[in-house]
Amino acid sequence: MPLTKPPPPPPKPQFDEPSTPKDFNEKFKAKETTKYMNPCTLEEKESMKCLDKNNYDKRQCDYYFMQYKECKKKWMENRRALRRAGQL
Prior knowledge:
The chain is mostly helical.
């Protein structure tokens, strides 16, 4: 049997801009050291709601988890840039 090339991977979905509030960095600077703040709260809630709705089958909620992951990635990139610029 001859070998064939595997099919190309599906294209990565495009997401809207993250839901991080505009004043989040100011709130983050002013928070207590031990307080946890999540800039992607909306994406987190949507992924948990999907899990609840689909009886905790994570495969059914891949889109929501990828969206949450993208939001966190963009936020961390933003924080690194601010830290390099000395603003955080």
